[in-house]
Amino acid sequence: MDFADAVELGDVDAVGQAALAAAGEVTAAELLEAALLRLDAGRDLNAVITDLFARGQQQAADLDASGVLRTGAAGPLAGVPFLLKDLGASLAGAPEAMGSRALRTHVAAETAWIVERYLDAGLVVFGKTNTPEWGNHCTTEPSLFGPTVNPWSPDITPGGSSGGSAAAVAAGIVAAASGGDGTGSIRVPASCCGLVGLKPRRGRTSFAPGAGHGLEGLVNEHALTRTVRDSAALLDAVAGTAVGDPYSAPPPAEPYLQAVATPPRSQRILMATASPFPGPATDPAVVTAVQRTASVLEELGHAIEAGTPRIDADAIADAVAVLHTVSNVALYDLAAEHLGRQPREDDFEPSTWVMIREGLTTSGAQYAGAIAAVHAQTRRFAVQLVGFDALLVPTLLTPPPPYRLLDQPRATTRAFFDVEFATTGWTSLANVTGWAAISVPVGETPDGLPIGVQLMAPDEEILLKLAAQLEVALPWAGRRPAGWIGRPSFGGPHK
């Protein structure tokens, strides 16, 4: 396969690539070969930090030999090359550093349930993507692997913690890649990189076999995509529960990929542009993007009402900080087991060490109080949304931020999140409440950088339907960054 053909295939979304394979126009091996050519061309992005080429080539060969692609029985994603985030998507026998120097030689002992579902869907896994240490940052610039470059500009972060996946998708290396979201880690990279990023509702997927939930329910796992239908098809692949899960979400009325083909009935949508947290005013370009989206939704027959749900910002910021400190003690313990000694401060990122240090002295009462605060603020938030079908808000309060902002150590973990929330604003509310939330790339700055707008709701179906409508009304499929594979490179990794 020549490079021009590889670039042409990279312009096709995941559902489209699978359809080509099912029609016999291309094999799984050829789809993977094309992805490998694109990855080689995009190495300067530093998006993929673990190559799993041999396992991907064997999986593709097995799919082609089985003949299942031609029957259609393998599903709408079979044969499509796919990348796993190097956190929360473990694959037995594969390196799993989680962005941490302390775990640079760590290898996963088991395969995550969600990865098993990806493999069952026929997705061909051939690499793992860059992530900040333990997913702590809404940027991707770990000291272990170095920063991932945003294909839109080497001066702005690709976001985090799923920044490696986002950069790979935004550049056209793959059509989709996995992600996880604890305070915005799918939606922030989606906004920074001009992608679709859906955080599912709490309980939609399983954390088996290693856990029942992440960050006491704040974390959800899904993917970064360029199209809404790819996000829907991937959610179909992973929705469900494993035996023994502590809780689950009710199953959808119909497959998500089928649901997005039908426009929704008229929805009542609350719109807010100001942040729920103290801090600077929302950037005018972001406000414009939200208001424009509201106008388009009104033209589509939906009712928009302005208003800002009120929450106790201090209570939420304190709770998120406490839950992160305790979670980072788990990293500390894992590192101790892996290293065979007590980890030292220089084994971790400076901001991680602040969280670990606080977590080691966090009391049980503080931990229980954080969980109670999350539940109390969820109820307060939900009561104010009674009568509305969705909430329309910014994804980020600013254009894509620069490097060396969202990963820096502060005096305390709470101070760290105060800085993060001054940029991210609404994203953490979806994690705290357990609501589904989707970022769609409908806006742009005056100099052409992407701006995401976010829709939140208790369930994913209405979000995917609304996003599909916006994808038609405000098409983003033709927008390509300067770093799109096949275009001249804008330079190497940010220094």
UniProtKB/TrEMBL annotation:
Q: What is its EC number?
A: 3.5.1.4
* UniProt domain Amidase: residue ranges: 30-458
InterPro entries registered for this protein in UniProt: Amidase, Amidase_dom, AS_sf
Query: A Pfam family in this protein?
Result: Amidase
- Per the record, the domain of life is Bacteria
The enzyme's main class, written as a single word, is hydrolase
Keyword Hydrolase: yes or no?
yes
Record SUPFAM superfamilies? Amidase signature (AS) enzymes (SSF75304)
Instruction: Indicate the family of this protein.
Output: Belongs to the amidase family.
Its recorded name reads amidase
Task: Please spell out the taxonomic lineage of the organism that makes this protein.
Answer: Bacteria, Bacillati, Actinomycetota, Actinomycetes, Mycobacteriales
